[in-house]
Amino acid sequence: MAETTWHRRHILSLETFTPAEYETIVQTAESFRQVLSRRTKKVPALQGQVVTNLFFEPSTRTRSSFELAAKRLSADTLNFAPGTSSLSKGETILDTAKTYLAMGTDLMVIRHQEAGVPLAIACELDRLGANVGVLNAGDGQHAHPSQALLDLFTLCSVLDAEAPSIELLKRKKIVIVGDILHSRVARSNLWSLSACGAIVHLVAPPTLLPMQFVAPFQNAIVGTHQLRQVQLHWQLEPALAGADFVMALRLQQERMTQHLLPSLREYHQQFGITRDRLSLCHSAVKLLHPGPTNRGVEISSDVMDDPALSLVSHQVTSGVAVRMALLYLMGTYHASST
Ligand code: ASP
Hints:
The protein is built from twelve helices and eleven strands. The protein is an alpha/beta fold.
């Protein structure tokens, strides 16, 4: 593993990440991808460290992926599940975090249904002078950095499997379609993809993509003068023309407080990704989805199961290497400040 310098104790959002940091993550993930393709898929990088997964909201792939990543780095892992914990006895979230701190946690991976909880825990741990890194594994509609970073790594490795790099993303057209309004994945991807020079097109019904949604992303400058390139569409077909990648998002019905869609059937008719619609894209187009997927709603089943089109399994596999990279980089910061 090449020497890398990492300057962040916590990873809470991608808002201030630089192209150089994205490149460090891609290169570190690539080294771990190579480790994971060996017979012995384990390295001693975090031996003796404790990684705690505090998941207050349900998760299948993210929690398992972080757990496996930590184990592949030889860390000891602790897993917190709210249903079986003292939260049900009235303990506060901060006290739960402090309990794991007292057990010697070095890195905390946190998911919560409310935006801002990982930040609140990170602030409290910093205030206590604890040398603990907090990684946001999804907070409300705010951010899901590790998902966007695994998407980034997947895109770079599909563009060049031998030498993935963020340079390959320059001017690539990436269409994100679905429930943008409620999606922390879309928000995090907007920061990373636009900072790496991709042209991001967002598509959704107007109720799920308000005009003002994009302003904070468009007005944020990358580097010295380069503006982020984001375009909005309320119809799918015109947006797909010449797309290099299409990322479909789940309809987050658990976060829809009002009636925002006529019916799932109608949504599929207008915004579902089908083989016919993909023929409007670049001939080498590939499809991504962060999961979990509503088959036949966001994507037709035959497209989802076609390995020539769908990168869904590839994303899951990349997820372990990317999460190893994030834990490793945060671990190097942790080690340098003890
Ligand atoms: N798994 C992703 C998330 O946690 C996407 C989704 O749930 O639709 O945000």
